[in-house]
Amino acid sequence: MKRGYFQRKIIDPIVKLLRQGISPEKIALGMAVGVVIGIFPVIGSTTLLCTIAALVLRLNLPAIQLVNYLVYPLQIALLIPFFQFGAWLFGVDPLPLSASQLISMFKTDLLDTIRQLWDTTLRAIVAWSLICLPTVTGLYYLLRPLLKKIKLKTDWS
């Protein structure tokens, strides 16, 4: 029987980590941190940030990077909301950009886009920082019991 993409790319690596003796708590924390860092509103920074987080927090590097890569579309989707939230926090008008315009800017001239969006990005980072701790906490407490159930199933297999 052919296993699906979700099974092969997400469930199987998690089961493998559990069988290696990594605790469900540690995997849940790594996944939660991977998601939150993965949506950090600076394109191209998350791989390095996840590596640093994995080393500092002693989390499984492949697991945190897997989650980081899986949430990449979410990072793109959340750029404009983070830009708008940051503008609201600082009482400035948000940039009138659509997602397609933003992607086009990055593809055309990355360095010029970074220069143009510097202040906007800094405000977005502040906005992200306000949601990161509650999001990590919520994801951790959501994922931990699920991973414990998976571990129980794999212990019986």
Summarize the structure.
With 157 residues, the protein is mostly helical. The chain has helices at 5-19, 24-38, 46-57, 61-70, 72-90, 99-108, 110-116, 118-156.
Structure description:
The chain is an all-alpha fold. The chain has one domain. Helices cover 81% and strands 0% of the residues. The model has no long low-confidence stretch (mean pLDDT 88).
Q: Give the DSSP E fraction (strand runs of 2 or more residues).
A: under 5%
- Sheet of most strands: none
Tally of distinct domains: 1
Order of helices and strands: HHHHHHHH
Task: Describe the protein's topology.
Blueprint: H1 5-19, H2 24-38, H3 46-57, H4 61-70, H5 72-90, H6 99-108, H7 110-116, H8 118-156
Helix pairs in contact: 1-8, 2-3, 2-4, 2-8, 3-4, 5-8, 6-7, 7-8
Keywords:
mainly alpha; about 160 residues; 8 helices
